[in-house]
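Long-time lurker. I teach an intro course on protein structure, and each term I like to show students one example going from raw sequence to a predicted 3D structure in token notation. This year I'd like something fresh instead of my usual example. Would anyone be willing to generate the tokens for the chain below so I can use it in lecture? Attribution to the forum is fine with me.
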Amino acid sequence: MSRTLDHVIVSVRDLTAAAEAYRRLGFTVMPRTLHENLGSANHIIQLHHNYFELLGDFHNYRDPLMRESMSARFAGGDGLSMLSLSCTDVAADRERLLARDHTPAQILDSARKVTLGDGTPDNTASRSMINWRPAARRWSSMFYTQHDKPETIWFPPWQSHANSVHTLVGISYCSDDLAADELYISEMVCANPVEKGPEKLVWRTSRGECLELLSPGALSGRFPVPVPETPFAVWPVGLRYQVERLEDCRIALREGNVPFMEQNDVITVDAEHAAGVISEFSENQ
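-- Reply from a regular --
Happy to contribute to a lecture. Here you go:
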């Protein structure tokens, strides 16, 4: 069965500013937490089936390779850096990838302290494993995350957002060579593309989430807002969220003084207002 979207990482140089930007977008942003065993810090935005992570303080990474690798994302400014897929046995997945001639990193303990909805302090029990790609295609690298205590990841009231977003339903990448990325993505998602053409590849997860890989030509007409320029051969560009009510999203963005465009019942926010991430909001998946 294909993997589902677990969470995405938005790499930022200023965590405080990024958190405020997402509050203006109408999201409920969790307090800053520290990855005790890694050194990085984050703000989590919980959704109903997945979440996303504003990640920073890379200079504090204890692992020099991770510090160098993640900091390199800022050659293209703030923005999406990696996607995590669902996993129930990260060790088995690592063995599977090794058998297919991938070079996955060691398993990382990504636990952090949290305060639950009732005020009770707890710790997450999450482990992750990055399947790094070569430097030229690093920002299509994906990883698996295993949550042994999911109740510490997803809990009210953090799943309620003024913009009425309830889940992340899609992620868009741009690639200068779709053929060079197809096998890697297919083996990470555990599914083949459901749509395949010279300018676009599309994967669907078992939950219906969409991962699209676009050529620069296809990307130019994909969004009604400018796409940030980067020096990367392949990189994630935008996220699509499903909302309960589009009118609530409009109201939240207006109250946050965030400009947006709306076409065909899809609201789009420029990357400038979302820490480098083009953001789409729709009632439909």
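Some talking points for your students: The chain has a mean pLDDT of 92. Helices lie at 15-24, 64-71, 90-99, 178-189, 216-220, 246-255.
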